[in-house]
Amino acid sequence: MTASIRQQAARVLLGNWTGHSTVPSHSLYPHQWSWDSAFIAIGLRHLSPRRAQVELESLLGSQWADGRIPHISFSPAVARDAYFPGPDFWQAVTQGGVETSGIIQPPVHALAAWLTHLADSDESVRRNFLARVYPKLVAWHAYLRDRRDLGGRGLVAIVHPWESGMDNSPAWDAALARVEPAPLESFTRRDTDHASDSDRPTDLDYGRYVQLAATYRDHGYDDGRTPFAFALEDPCFNALLIASEHALAEIASALSLDPVPHLKAAAALTSSLSTLFADGIFEARDLESERLVAAGTISGLVPLIVPGLVEAEELLATACGPRFRFGEVRMVPSYDLTGPAFEPGRYWRGPSWFNTAWLIHRGLVGLGRTDLAATLRTDVLELAATTGFAEYVDPHTGEPRGARDFSWTAALALDLEQP
């Protein structure tokens, strides 16, 4: 990445900064999103470690009393109808008066906090950063392990496709088909005002998303009382929790606290994660049917980031094989290239994403596969530079899709550019 591209990435992040957090995109996503902010902090730390700390602190300021970190923290400076579902739909307000959504997103936050600390440990210590965020992150992980182990196997379940961060992945199709969609006339989408219909989830799927969220809302976001029509154990979500438990162990050690509980939690999760492995890839488990979902998605490759993963070599073989063609197509497709539901331009049904590429790159480095990591790094940096920091790209052509000047694309390019 040339100096001019570094400046362009910085321009994106500074342009999307609101004074206390960074929006993913002013047009498409005008509020603060949970896992976006974690990825953004990972890049921001190279521009301003303090601003990266503030990014995470701002997000944690919207944490619920039960420990959950909601997937959206709504900005009062943005029109209430600028995004749907907005605050009037969710009807969720924290004890501190912050309006939020009621669902969650993957737990990248402890990893982001640890990496942010390492960027300038002196500034971190001076601001007491780790000591302030550690108990909040512990509460977040406790919520996930205690309230969301719906299958009783020690794995976290997601109860809405949006909680995976991979909204319309083919892995959710069968479970979503059980959901009676909210009538189209009962809501107004805002995402298609800013992106092509062909890139976004269908109206039918969106109606199902709305119905699932409304049911959870109408049961007070109570994980014990809500009749979940959609509940799956997602490999990406659980792999990121494992990575973040390892990060919490590092944070605990830095604070002269006991890291062992976090290491034990990571080990237990890693053992349970193995029950999701089949046919060379990790697959989600549908808790209604108690069966693995035979859809090869990028979620099933993200466990490459898990330290000591016994399935790593088989997983690498799948990534490099005909289903994902690592090194032959652009970055890493979000869905099996040979799969029946593959669409190269529609959201999580085929396009390649920068955040999942960053996670795979981190996994490759951890496995000592510097050759594969270097190939992926070069591809990420080239595509970020040539697409105007696109949200995602066509895996065959590299054509930009979704929003431009997308914050996590700029942030993660900045991170990978570092020597």
How many distinct domains?
2
Question: What's the helix-strand series?
Answer: HEHHEHEEHHHEHHEHHEEEEHEHHEEH
Number of H- or I-type helical stretches:
15
Helix content: 40-55%
Under CATH, the topology of the largest domain can be stated as Glycosyltransferase
What percent strand? Answer: 5-15%
Helix-and-strand structural type: alpha+beta
What this model shows, in words?
This protein folds into two domains: 1-26 and 329-419, no CATH class; 27-328, Glycosyltransferase. It contains 15 helices and 13 strands. The chain has helices at 3-15, 34-44, 49-60, 87-90, 109-119, 121-126, 129-147, 173-176, 203-218, 235-254, 260-273, 312-320, 354-366, 370-386, 407-417, and strands at 32-33, 72-73, 92-93, 99-100, 157-158, 232-233, 277-278, 281-282, 285-286, 291-292, 352-353, 392-393, 400-401. A hairpin with a 4-residue loop joins strand 9 and strand 10 (291-292). Helix 5 packs antiparallel against helix 7 (129-147), helix 7 runs antiparallel to helix 10 (235-254) and helix 10 runs antiparallel to helix 11. It is globular. Belongs to the glycosyl hydrolase 63 family. Residues 29-409 form the Mannosylglycerate hydrolase MGH1-like glycoside hydrolase domain.
Give a nutshell description of this structure.
Keywords: Glycosidase, Hydrolase. The chain has 15 helices and 13 strands. The protein is of the alpha+beta class and 419 residues long.
Topology summary:
Elements: H1 3-15, E1 32-33, H2 34-44, H3 49-60, E2 72-73, H4 87-90, E3 92-93, E4 99-100, H5 109-119, H6 121-126, H7 129-147, E5 157-158, H8 173-176, H9 203-218, E6 232-233, H10 235-254, H11 260-273, E7 277-278, E8 281-282, E9 285-286, E10 291-292, H12 312-320, E11 352-353, H13 354-366, H14 370-386, E12 392-393, E13 400-401, H15 407-417
Antiparallel strand pairs: 1-2, 3-4, 5-6, 6-9, 7-8, 9-10, 11-12, 12-13
Helix pairs in contact: 1-15, 2-3, 2-5, 2-15, 3-5, 3-7, 5-7, 5-10, 7-10, 10-11, 13-14, 14-15
